[in-house]
Write a structure and sequence with these properties.
Layout (H helix, E strand, L loop, with lengths): L1 E4 L3 E5 L19 E11 L3 E12 L6 E5 L36 E5 L14 H15 L4 E7 L1 H12 L4 E7 L7 H19 L3 H16 L2 H7 L4 E3 L2 E3 L3 H12 L4 H12 L12 E6 L7 H10 L4 E6 L7 H4 L1 H24 L1
Parallel strand pairs: 2-3, 5-6, 5-7, 7-8, 8-11, 11-12
Antiparallel strand pairs: 1-12, 3-4, 4-6, 9-10
């Protein structure tokens, strides 16, 4: 349903407000580039903190710049490139001929503040939006053509649009809205308790793995589990549920790459989400999944009714629930391409002005 309402190169930069894109070699400006920028970030709940922003940029920065952000487990590597050939977290949407085509747009992303596990402090989604602005300043990017955010990334994008409207032309907010629903927050609170239990047993990894397994039950739906897994069996004198091996795999894979501290602080950050939709005046495309347990459809309707700019709402159905932005490739591709056509129309209008 759609409703319309109204060779490998690494840059390391240490003076974020005095770096111009034109300083980089022309060849480097057309390839995938990774860099690190040290900034002093004024954070909402813990004062000034020195943080390192680790980013990846794919494509010529003279093209329209799209900032792409995912959930708390996503990182700066959105899609594969010649320089960084491993698959990215949104590989289905990123690459030549795909919606996020680096020959048509410059794709920019970064690792979440706190994602490396070195910051033991309360992190507000506002802080991530502040970090985005700091990165744009560092790279000499006055304005994004669009911010495309999924889950936590959509929450951060709403803050960016509300607080820094001149820095973003459009926002695409997928499965992440203006508030943290109390039901979803309860799920996350239990996940953090699982991490705490692991710490009490001196086994952070097991705590994080169990937290991820609990999270998977909230990301997906009963219909998916019914279609994938059979009945329980008795194995070696105990009852084994069919989904256990799958959940074990998901949990361990996550624990192998995410520290307990990073998970807890970013999980907390989601629960601090609070944006006044009336403060958002930039054009917004909102994407909701009817079966999403964590981000209810009612919140999507509330958001679009209160936004003050041009607003478009897409509602899709998916047995993958909250993870639909990763799994429903065709539906998301169509929505992104529509939003990118809007961006092109904006550029044409500005050129005629």
């Amino acid at each position: 349903m759609s409703l319309q309402l109204a060779s490998r190169t690494t840059e390391t930069l240490f003076q974020p407000r005095h770096v111009a894109v034109s300083r980089f070699p022309a060849a480097a400006r057309k390839m995938a580039v990774r860099g690190e920028i040290e900034v002093e970030l004024a954070m909402r709940h813990c004062g000034n903190q020195s943080v390192t922003l680790r980013y990846e940029r794919v494509g010529d920065p003279s093209l329209p710049v799209l900032f792409v952000a995912g959930g708390i487990s996503a990182n700066r590597h959105v899609g594969a490139s010649d320089q960084f050939s491993d698959a990215g977290w949104w590989q289905e949407q990123s690459g030549p001929g795909r919606a996020l085509d680096p020959s048509q747009h410059c794709i920019l992303s970064f690792d979440w503040v706190g994602g490396d596990g070195t910051l033991d402090a309360v992190i507000d989604p506002v802080d991530q939006a502040t970090a985005v602005v700091a990165l744009l300043d560092a790279l000499g990017i006055p304005r994004l053509s669009a911010f495309i955010g999924n889950s936590y990334g959509a929450m951060v994008g709403l803050h960016l649009a509300a607080l820094h409207p001149r820095r973003v032309g459009r926002l695409v907010a997928i499965s992440g809205f203006h508030r943290a629903h109390p039901y979803a927050s309860a799920w996350r609170a239990l996940q953090r308790r699982a991490v705490a239990l692991g710490a009490l047993q001196c086994d952070d990894s097991q705590g994080v793995a169990l937290a991820r397994q609990l999270a998977m039950l909230s990301y997906r739906t009963a219909d998916e589990f019914d279609s994938r897994f059979g009945a329980a069996k008795v194995v070696n004198g105990r009852v084994q549920v069919a989904a256990e091996d799958y959940l074990d795999h998901c949990g361990q894979r996550f624990a192998d790459r995410v520290s307990a501290q990073a998970f807890v602080r970013l999980s907390e950050s989601i629960d601090l989400q609070a944006v006044d939709p009336e403060a958002v005046h930039v054009p917004v495309t909102v994407v909701a999944v009817a079966e999403d347990l964590l981000v209810p459809l009612a919140d999507a309707y509330d958001l679009v009714q209160r936004l003050r700019g041009e607003t478009r709402l897409h509602v899709i159905h998916s047995r993958f629930g909250h993870d639909a932005f990763l799994k429903e490739s065709r539906a998301i591709d169509g929505i992104l391409r529509e939003a990118l056509l809007d961006i092109a129309a904006d550029a044409d209008a500005e050129g005629l002005a």
